[in-house]
Amino acid sequence: FMVGHLGYYFDAIYKHNDEDIRSEGYSTDFFTRQALNFIEKNKEEPFFCYVPYNVPHSPFQVPEKYFNKYKAKGLDNELASVYGMVENMDDNIGLILTKLDQLRLRENTIVIFMSDNGPNTFRYNGHMKGKKGSVDEGGVRVPFYISWPGTIQAGTTDQLAQDIDLLPTLLKLCSVNDNPVLPVDGQDLSGNILLRSVPVDRYIFSRQANYPMINCMGSVRNDRYRLIAGQKDTLLFDMQEDPSQKLNIAARYPETRATLAAVFRKWEHELVSQYQVQTTIEAGFAEEKSITFPVQDATLSGKINYSSVHPNQSHTQGWIQNGDSIYWRLNMQQAGRYRVELQYGCQVGETGSKFMLRSNAGSVNFEIEKPFNSVILPERDFVTRTESVERTWDWMPVGDLSLQKDEECLVLKLLKVKDAEAGLIKAIRLNRLVN
């Protein structure tokens, strides 16, 4: 799913090699089936299988048998959904490990389980402070397990580690020689994993990814301390004595605070001093048969708005004012001519509105003539969602449009609204025309 978030977990539509495919069943089960097929297909040669499950996360949709199990234990709907999602994911990971055993690949395969951030709602988090989006321990600390039977012994390490360490560590474990163009920030921790090295102290950094970046919170920690750096103040916590970050000791240890603050600011300067906000979409590659531009990647004007506070997986509504538009900034790798389609919903009484789609190389005018009743998919949420509801959509032809090489701007503009509103718009799709 290409828009950063999946809004419906059952029989969802995914991209596969530029084409939409409708899955069957629950998302986690579907992803696992794809992984099992991939492993079976590539069992005779080295492979890399990446399985990024989208749960546990809102919206809270999970097969009922998993939800009911935890609801029966007295949990509320949110926690019953979360623990149900986790157990379903555990079952699916078990299927992958079983497949490796059946193919006798287990002792020749490195398996890693990890997550990307803390929970997206306040729930049990190992008594750590914060959640997803924060730079406290509970926002950035995640589980990490690595398994290689016969090579890696069971156990744990106290070595402080970060996801940037994966690249150099896996290269070493797989005996891959690499000559990177730029310095690698991570450390090779294969010695720690193989119990050949003792843990060493180090600094690891975290930073929010909001814009403008100058206003973001950040943090740095080593084995003993975590410093939280904000615009107004810095907080210091002893992670050994106070792992839940309940006591700010910055005033008690000003030298430690100053040292960690200097380390963080030096790293921050290296990270963002040359940073420029990049809102240009790279497109027009020779291998692309089609390009889909969801409205979440567009800039909106006038009264047009998203269907949710979360742009991910949202659609646009409020097409009520002539002259309002949305646009995408592109960097086209090559010029091309495309047949354009609009993903939309429009009730019978809303047809007849006129639009223009314009690029730097040309434009095409069109009218929404055919109604399509965009209906909300059946209710499967156990908790009221903040994300946009999922709906049915249709595609309609718009016309042919040329796009130039390098800088381009694709503008969808409402020329004349027929009635109260011109409908709902989800995406634009460009299908390359072969000369």
Task: Put the structure in a nutshell.
By secondary structure, the chain is α+β, with helices and mostly antiparallel strands.
Describe the SSE topology.
Elements (H helix, E strand, L loop, with lengths): L12 E4 L2 E4 L4 H15 L22 H8 L5 H26 L8 E4 L22 H4 L3 E4 L18 H8 L16 H4 L10 E4 L10 E4 L3 E5 L4 E5 L15 H19 L8 E3 L6 E5 L4 E2 L4 E2 L9 E2 L7 E8 L3 E10 L8 E6 L2 E6 L26 E10 L2 E11 L7 E9 L3
Strand content: 15-25%
Instruction: Please count the beta strands (DSSP E, at least 2 residues each).
Output: 20
Instruction: Give me the oligomer status.
Output: single chain
Mean pLDDT: 94
Order of helices and strands: EEHHHEHEHHEEEEHEEEEEEEEEEEE
Describe this structure in words.
- It is a single chain.
- By secondary structure, the protein is of the alpha+beta class.
- The chain is 19% helix and 25% strand.
- It contains seven helices and 20 strands.
- Strands 9, 11, 14, 16, 17 and 19 form a six-stranded mixed sheet that branches. A four-stranded antiparallel sheet has the order 5-6-7-8, covered by helices on one side. A four-stranded antiparallel sheet has the order 10-20-15-18, with no helix packed on it.
- It is globular.
- The two termini are 30 Å apart.
- The relative contact order is 0.11.
- The model has no long low-confidence stretch (mean pLDDT 94).
